[in-house]
Amino acid sequence: MDNSFSEIKNSKTGQLIRFVSRLKDTEERLGMVASYPPFCKEPPEHYHPHQTEYITILKGEIAVRINGKVCIYKEGESIITLPNDRHAMWNDTSQTVIVDWQVFPQLETETFLRKMTQLANLPETGPGRIVRLFKGMYLLLVFSDTIKLTGLPGVAINWLTILLSPFLRLKRNYNQI
Hints:
Elements: E1 6-9, E2 16-22, E3 30-36, E4 46-47, E5 52-59, E6 61-66, E7 69-74, E8 78-81, E9 87-90, E10 97-104, H1 109-120, H2 133-142, E11 148-149, H3 151-170
Antiparallel strand pairs: 1-2, 2-3, 3-10, 4-11, 5-8, 5-10, 6-7, 6-9
Helix pairs in contact: 2-3
């Protein structure tokens, strides 16, 4: 990714992510500021096999599920998710929530977030619908070192990905997604 600061917005959920820092020489850290609109839906639970996330609430309060336990974090409080911690984060309040979000090591997190946002913003994905199955599966296959889904969606996608991986691998140029 280039080193300019930029942002992405999911037009379906309203989530905005501003990329604020990258340590390209060491590829150690990706810094972001994310905003969650009021009453956003809980996203699919997921985990990162090789990454730690540090999140500090800058404004508002946010619900976080980590390894099955839901807690509410308020302005000034911090959250740490370690590799393989199953988690999801959402705003269940009437106010916009803003968080500082640091990912160590950054791996392909920025590229994954950009691709998923691009996919979510496509016209064929309507409000409240899951992104198109095959494109989403392909992204999860390509970025499996960065993110994995948990629970039934994760198991189903993992098995479908294994079964369809020969076909998915044929489409090497995921920049077209």
